Amino acid sequence: MKKISLSIAITCFTISLWAQGIPPRQEVNLDDVYTQYGLSGENVVVVIIDRGIDYRHPDFLDENGNTRLAYVYDMIDQTGAGDPDNPYGIGTIFDQAEIDLALDNNDPPLSTDRGGHGTATTGIAAGNGSGTVSGDFQGVAHGATIISIKITHDAFPPFGSEPGQAGFFDPTFIPVALQFAEDKIAELGLPSITLMNLGSIGGPTDGTSTVCQAIDAFVMAGNTFICGVGDDGGGDNHAATNISQGETIELEIQKAETGFLRLDLWYSEDDRFTISIERPNGTVEGPFAAPAGPNGAVDLSFGDIFMFHRGANVEFFGATSNRRELLIDFTGNTGTYKVILEGAQISNGDFHATLNPSFYSNNNRFLNFVVPGYSINDYASSNLGITPTDYVVQPSWTDINGVPRSITGQGDPGELWIGSSSSPTQDDRLGIDVAVPGEVCHAAYADNTYYESFPGNVLQNSNGLYGIQNAVSAAAPLLTGVIALMLEVNPNLTPEEIRTLIHNSSREDAFTGTVPNHDWGYGKLDALQLIEDTYATLGTEDVTKDASIIAFPNPTQGKLTIATQHLSEEISVTVSNVAGQLLMTHKGQQTQQLELDFNVPRGMYFVTVSTSEGKKTLKVLKD
Q1: Of 19, 34, 100, whose CA–CA distance to 445 is shortest?
Q2: What is the SS3 assignment for 454-503?
Q3: Residue of 523, 485, 495 lying closest to 138 (CA atoms)
Q4: Per-residue confidence (pLDDT) for residue 5, from 0 to 100
Q5: Are the beta carbons of 321 and 350 closer than 8 angstroms?
Q6: CA–CA dist 537, 500 (Å, integer)
Q7: Which residues does the chain have with pLDDT short of 70?
Q8: Pick from 226, 543, 178: nearest CA to 389
Q9: What is the three-class DSSP state of 54?
Q10: Cα separation values, 607 from 77, 544, 575, 604, 619, Å
């Protein structure tokens, strides 16, 4: 989801990551899905909202060398903001023809992903693995059509001969990105799944922010949407309690890391908290009275501390939940700070407070009033999006130089990754739908990117084109690809039907305990069960795609009847598997029905029926 600093990025890269990769694929039974059903995500759109893409990577080219991307929308490149084909007023849009022309001419890239995160995300969800002859690094929905929206990029230092990069993120871009996605999905006329692979702890986290409202509107328009739960687990980064009238509490914050630390505290508009701030040396700023009403603001600077105390109508996230926000940025010395809260006017008295950055490998933390959980990111708290978390499968790999690498201290196989954020939302809803194996995954790496600059993360036998990806950033695109396969089976599934199918097909084990719960959601993803359940949503006519020749029962457990509308002098039936191998043939004469012993393993098969009136091929499922 995020890489907060260089040191954290390096830690993650040397001890975590992979995803198209074999262990996660086997863990969720994807190999069985491919073998039994032959799905690829064809005729499904996968939209990735992330750090962009290197569209020149082989994963995103078809067999003729043409792009698999319908669009790249670079929201950071403003050179095309005034173009007549860009009604959004932000960024630059490149369509399929423009991308192909640039590829044909070997032009400098129209848009880049210098970090590598967006390219890796897209590869996990929809890369075709063509960077190697073996195809071992193939993504989940490797036949899908791709839309890439570059909405942010991370900061990193210079590496090799490449310059560094300053970070950029503007959350007001997100509703625009969703509108672009909705418009282009409608233009293409295909079912779609959209992943926004970013987000961190902070904000109202109750589903009412401007971004959450935009996400819910996007889903209500019929577009399925995913945002991972976040990478802020394993730290004491949430505090909550109740303050009584006239009571004073001291909320203690350990700022152990140099740089920036943000406190974001939310409480009822009906309450008034008076605020003081005590530095590690004992110096106190304040007290400062609360803003008088919902439109009030008390914004102050103390040099290395910035305080923003806002009423419900002017808080920074556009939330509709009638809560005030106290946001304090600490940029000075390390040590223990105290935020002193006095209940000047209390009707409710509850508050939720978060710290960022503060997580499993970071020592910034609350020292009192700590309440576990509530570390889900704000975007994942939307009411209608699908929210995956991340667990460990096989935390090891061999790098391009043949050196074995492994993860330690972040969870053993089967366990939740220590950095996965936890539910509930701040309005106490279950905030996680399903757990997906993201530790570790294989992902597309492009040349001269920050990801590729770490040879220990580039995988053996990958031609230097694939490396490791981990955290919720790997789990979320894996689920995205699986949903694309669901939509290939049944393009008419609604977002709510997809979420329900995921809930009902997920499995519990000794690690998850009884589900649903606030760490694992409804359990671990089982792609095979999910696809089987998706096929079960189809009626017989949906599966056969033909009314004049039908096969029933479909699915079948052993007997299959072929029926035609008219008496045929001769009926010829062949049965093939998804690999095209002929398994059986049957013939009948002067009949409208032919009964077969369908003695084949479970899975999907192609039954071709030839009569004097023509030939039809039907999809038949064996339970």
Answers
A1: 19
A2: CHHHEECCCCCCEEEECCHHHHHHHHHHHHHHHHHHCCCCCHHHHHHHHH
A3: 485
A4: 28
A5: no
A6: 12
A7: 1-22, 539-548, 578-579
A8: 226
A9: coil
A10: 51, 9, 5, 10, 6
Q: Which residues contact 580 (CB under 8 A, 6 or more apart)?
A: none
Q: Which residue in 558, 604, 597, 615 sits closest to 578, CA to CA?
A: 604
Q: Which residue has the tokens 């990111």?
A: 377
pLDDT at 538: 84
What pLDDT is recorded for position 23? 85
Say what the pLDDT of residue 437 is.
Answer: 97
Residue whose C-alpha is closest to residue 372's, from 306, 322, 309, 421: 421
Distance CA(377)–CA(357), nearest Å, equals: 12
d(CA 603, CA 623): 7
Nearest to 316 by CA among 210, 428, 448: 210
pLDDT at residue 539, as a whole number = 65
Helix (H) or strand (E) holding 236: none
- Residue 148's nearest CA partner among 215, 60, 42, 69 is 69
Give burial (CB, 10 Å; 0-12/13-18/19+) of 545: exposed
| Token digits of residue 95 | 């369509």
Measured CA angle at 47 (ends 465, 97), to 5 deg:
75
CB-based contacts of 129, cutoff 8 Å, min separation 6:
20, 59, 135, 136, 137, 138, 139, 142
The whole-number pLDDT of residue 617 equals 81
The pLDDT value recorded for residue 579 is 67
Domains defined along the chain, listed by start: 6-231+380-534 (3.40.50.200), 238-370 (2.60.120.1290), 540-622 (2.60.40.3080)
Sign of torsion, CA 575 581 583 584?
positive
- Listing DSSP states for 266-325 in one string gives EEETT-EEEEEEE-TTS-EEEEEPPPSSTT-EEEEE-SSEEEEEE-TTTSTT---S-EEE
The answer to whether 569 and 28 are in contact (CB under 8 A) is no
Q: Is the Cα torsion angle 537, 540, 546, 547 positive or negative in sign?
A: negative
CA gap 461, 269 in Å, rounded: 58
Cα distance between residue 453 and residue 15, in whole Å? 16
